[in-house]
Write a structure and sequence with these properties.
This is Tetratricopeptide repeat protein. The protein is mostly helical. Among the domains are: 157 residues, Rossmann fold (3-Layer(aba) Sandwich), CATH 3.40.50; 84 residues, Serine Threonine Protein Phosphatase 5, Tetratricopeptide repeat (Alpha Horseshoe). Helices cover 59% and strands 5% of the residues. The chain is elongated, with a radius of gyration of 41 Å.
Length: 1003
């Protein structure tokens, strides 16, 4: 048995400063054993063995060895990157932080793999190399790599002696060298574990440490990490163009590629290299990336010195994460199907049964920079998502089965997180708005032909919310896709499918697309009668929806029998005082109101409200709805003494029960302002309109349909108030409303047509009769094309056109146009309809302008009598009719009667508008002329104005009894709005499709 032992002698105090011997303790045991510590000679074993060993070498004392000479004072792995762009702020920050302290100065740069941490450190090291005595680069992903990196400095400084010492000895000598040679920079690149660096860094306090790491946590003992984010868009675009060798002509396409890659530097470099190598443009690359994502993520062009790719860079990280915590890998795959930003943390709580385990998994993902973790939300890079959801057979982390399972789990998580109840409920809106981007992202990533029942549920629910928010295009797109999915998955006759089809009709109705609404409602009603039975609540709701559409189309004669039948069936099936029966009664009253039959509408509204107050309570939302709608009927009847206090009580109740910002509350505030304007209290009306607009902008958005209508009402009130410069201000506001309506709703939407009507009417009042007539001609053509020539709104526009012809001095054209319009009104509208009365009034004034006072009297006298019978002698619109008749009487020579009628009209106007209102003054001046027998027929505000009354004005789309718009050229301004949250037949419980949480077919 042979044993060999070599021992490094202990430090000899007498040798201090002479450096350690290059020896270490070594041992061998066993027959013919030889111990070898380093390859310092030749050893033969066995009998007669010969051993030749080099003599031990003592490394010189570290403080006696100079650093590398100037140009060679570094070991940086690559020269400066000629394509480096951006990062000026980050480089300055690193310099500032490293230069700001004393002692151990360490700056850690953390971030996602591929974000450019190494590139930043390398750029900093090259840029500031002259500021340091030595710049040393150490790969720090493993403890052994750190030791080897330190040892490499000794090898550089002592090339002849380094081979005689072990790597740990060389590393220790390097640490001593750093301690005795201040002013250096050491870069620890891609450090994995802070604990591996701490023993080294703690010994070195005479220079700067710059650390890069994917890990974001654990660095607090070494200072505050600097998180490196993506490139700025313009910098990423420039980088791509430089590497790809493309010119400025491709900047737009390059910007799209950079955005698709999330401005991740490595991905941008990879894309540029691919384009350069293959000789393709940025647009072609983007197409390939979208068609073949797995191959493009892994693509590295031949001959590249840097074989890093997105797939390779993250594969190691993903494997490490999966090995440490499989739940973290599952979470990342789920996150891949959501939007990249502001993912609610609580959305992911249902992934596992243990919330603490979910927290740990998220922390692990955040620690490796795969996500950015906040207290309530998290963020994940879009390219991380793209890689995580792209199957790759070569990557176990991206097996197709696991990716598809995560896709289904993401849909179920979103569905489970949706708010319960109706999407009109304001308290649920923050949650909806937090989830909506993720539903949208999921829908974009999910192939429509693979939509499941869960996806259909999400789309249906999301479409409901989008409809209530006024996002009609998105609501239609999601509703159509949900319907297609449910027809495929559940069948065309499934109750959930029918609910979605009915909801899609609501969307088309809100968009004013009556050509699609009515057939869809008719088909849904027929199918529900066949599948569910005629008395099923969904069937009764469908009948109400169809009646609404008929009413919107001006087919009130068809709507009223449907309303009446639905009311009778609900009272028979559910009872007279059931909430659905009360809603049907409200809808029938709304139909009567729109038909101008206020004698039936008002008592029916009153009984509905009284019964609701007794059965449901005065504070019930539906009772408040019925109170609001009764107020509209009172106002239409000119009974402001009852309308105003009722609006006041309803507004107070809605503010208390629903909140000041609820859309229903905003509606009643608008209606109160309307009644105040009608009563002549313009200062208070303006204040309420302004508050309503401000709140609607804040709550709903500036371009929500209801906000647009509120803005139009405010503009009308500003115009009504008169004053220096107010007319021009009001015209500007009306133009803005029109432009926003066209952009948001489309040129043919009923609300857009209303905005056009109101702007033309305002121009007419300012004396721009030629422009007003041209605008009305265009409006009549478009309204006839979209709604039909005999639709009430079209008839109203035609009446206004005739008025504009008269004011513009084209009396003969006015008479001919209005005669034709009156004939269509008499054929289409019920007797006493306000539009018919308006046309008769305007026709009488046209005859008067044409020098035909007898014909004028024949039209104006019956119109006044009918208006007085319907509205009462003190109604403001009756005063307008009365004043028109006085002009005809004066022209016919009956000045005494004319003065009497004008005096009565003036008394009403003074009472309602006040003595100082411009219209009061205008009527007073005309009365003065009558009294002086100097009657002329100029057009001035209030003198012979075209008129319509009752049921006109700016209603929110879809309100019960609310025509989609239509004021006369008189532009009565802000008119009563029906409750926008209570579309007829769409009360809670009336349609399961309106409550996604109760959808029977979504599970």
């Amino acid at each position: 048995m042979n044993t060999a032992i070599s021992v490094e002698p202990p430090d000899d105090p007498a040798l201090t400063g002479r450096g350690p011997l290059a020896w270490r303790q070594s041992a061998a045991s066993g027959e013919r054993a030889v111990a070898v510590d380093a390859n310092s000679g030749i050893v033969s074993t066995g009998p007669g063995a010969t051993i030749y060993a080099r003599p031990a070498v003592r490394l010189p004392p570290a403080h006696t060895v100079a650093g590398p000479p100037g140009p060679h004072n570094h070991n940086l792995p690559r020269p400066p990157n000629a394509q480096f762009v951006g990062r000026a702020e980050e480089l300055s920050r690193v310099r500032e932080l490293l230069a700001s302290g004393t002692g151990v100065i360490t700056q850690t740069v953390v971030g996602l793999g591929g974000v450019g941490k190494t590139s930043l450190a390398l750029q900093y090291a090259h840029r500031h190399r002259a500021d340091y005595t030595t710049v040393w680069w150490i790969t720090a992903d493993q403890p052994d790599a750190i030791t080897a990196g330190l040892a490499s400095l000794t090898s550089r400084l002592l090339p002849d002696l380094a081979s005689s010492a072990t790597i740990p000895v060389l590393a220790e000598w390097a640490i001593t060298w750093f301690q005795t040679h201040p002013g250096w920079l050491v870069v620890f690149d891609n450090a994995e574990d802070p604990r591996a660096l701490e023993p080294v860094i703690s010994q070195l306090d005479t220079g700067h440490h710059l650390v890069t790491s994917r890990r974001t946590t654990g660095w607090h003992r070494l200072g505050t990490p600097l998180r490196l984010d993506m490139l700025m868009p313009q910098d990423a675009t420039e980088l791509l163009l430089r590497i790809a060798g493309r010119g400025a002509g491709e900047r737009e396409a390059a910007a799209r590629v950079a955005a698709e890659l999330g401005y991740l530097p490595l991905a941008v470099e990879q894309a540029g290299a691919y384009c350069h190598h293959h000789g393709i443009g940025c647009a072609a690359f983007l197409e390939r990336l979208r068609r073949y994502p797995a191959r493009m993520f892994a693509a590295a062009y031949p001959g590249s010195t840097d074989r890093r790719t997105i797939a390779r860079t993250w594969r190691v990280t993903l494997s490490t994460i999966a090995a440490a915590d499989p739940l973290a890998a599952d979470l990342l795959r789920v996150l891949a199907w959501l939007a990249p930003d502001r993912v609610p943390r609580d959305l992911l709580a249902a992934v596992g049964d243990d919330p603490l385990a979910v927290d740990d998994a998220l922390a692990l993902l955040g620690g490796y920079s795969m996500i950015t973790l906040g207290s309530a939300h998290l963020r994940v890079h879009r390219l991380v998502q793209a890689v995580a959801r792209t199957p790759d057979p070569a990557d176990p982390m991206r097996a197709e089965a696991e990716i598809l399972a995560a896709r289904g789990r993401a849909a179920r998580l979103l569905r489970g997180a949706l708010p319960r109840g109706l999407s009109i409920d304001v308290p649920s809106w923050p949650r909806w708005r937090a989830l909506l981007p993720h539903i949208e992202a999921y829908a974009e990533l999910m192939p429509a032909e693979q939509d499941t029942s869960d996806v259909a549920f999400l789309l249906h629910a999301g479409s409901l919310f989008q409809l209530d928010q006024g996002h009609l295009a998105q609501a239609a797109a999601w509703g159509e896709r949900a319907l297609a999915a449910r027809e495929r998955v559940l069948g065309a006759d499934h109750p959930a499918t029918l609910s979605t089809r009915n909801h899609l009709g609501n969307v088309y109705r809100a968009a004013g697309d009556l050509g699609r609404v009515i057939p869809l409602y008719e088909r849904t009603l027929a199918d529900r009668e066949r599948v569910l039975g005629e008395d099923h609540p969904d069937t009764l709701a469908s009948r109400n929806y169809l009646a609404n559409a008929y009413r919107d189309a001006g087919r009130v004669g068809e709507a009223l029998p449907l309303y009446a039948r639905t009311l009778a069936d609900r009272e028979r099936v559910l009872g007279r005082e059931h909430i659905e029966s009360l809603i049907s009664r409200n809808n029938l009253a709304s139909g009567y109101r729109d038909a101008g039959d206020l004698a039936r509408a008002v008592p029916l509204f009153e009984s509905t409200r009284e019964d609701a107050e007794r059965v449901l309570g005065a504070a019930h939302p539906r009772t408040l709805l019925f109170g609001n709608n009764l107020g509209t009927a009172y106002e239409a009847a000119g009974d402001l003494r009852r309308a105003l206090p009722l609006y006041e009580r309803t507004l107070a109740g809605r503010e208390r029960v629903l909140g000041a910002d609820h859309p229903d509350t905003l509606t009643t505030r608008n209606n109160l302002a309307s009644a105040l304007q009608e009563s002549g209290d313009l200062p208070r009306a303006l204040a309420l309109f302004e508050r309503t607009v401000a709140d609607a902008r804040r709550v709903l958005g500036a371009e929500h349909p209801r906000t647009l209508l509120a803005r139009g009402n405010l503009a009308e009130a500003v115009f009504e108030a008169g004053g220096a410069g107010e007319a021009e201000r009001a015209l500007g506001m009306l133009r803005e409303v029109l432009a926003d309506s066209v952009r948001t709703l489309g040129a043919d939407h009923p609300d857009t047509l209303l905005a056009r009507n109101n702007l033309a009417g305002a121009l007419l009042e300012t004396g721009a009769a030629g422009e007003a007539a041209a605008r009305f001609e265009s409006l009549v053509a478009d309204s006839g094309r979209t709604l039909g020539a005999r639709h009430p709104d079209t008839l109203l526009a035609r009446s206004n056109l005739g008025a504009a012809y008269r004011v513009a001095g084209r009396a003969a054209e006015a008479v001919a146009s209005l005669e034709e319009t009156l004939a269509d009104c008499e054929r289409t509208l019920s007797p006493g309809h306000p539009h018919g009365l308006a046309v008769r009034h305007n026709l009488g004034l046209a005859h008067l302008a044409a020098g035909e006072p007898a014909a004028a009297l024949a039209r104006l006298a019956p119109a006044l009598a009918e208006a007085e019978r319907l509205l009462g002698a003190e109604h403001p619109r009756v005063a307008v009719h009365r004043f028109g008749l006085s002009l005809a009487q004066a022209a016919a020579g009956d000045v005494r009667s004319a003065i009497g009628q004008a005096e009565r009209a003036l008394a009403v106007r003074r009472r309602l508008l006040g003595r100082d209102h411009p219209r009061t003054h205008a009527l007073g001046r005309t009365l003065g002329r009558l009294r002086r027998r100097l009657v002329t027929l100029p057009y001035e505000p209030g003198a012979g104005r075209p008129v319509a009354f009752g049921g006109t004005g700016a209603y929110p789309a879809g309100g019960p009894g609310a025509p989609p718009g239509g004021t006369t050229a008189e532009r009565p301004g802000a008119q009563p709005q029906d409750n926008p949250g209570a579309r007829p037949g769409e009360s809670p419980g009336a349609n399961p499709g309106a409550r996604p949480d109760a959808d029977p077919g979504a599970s």
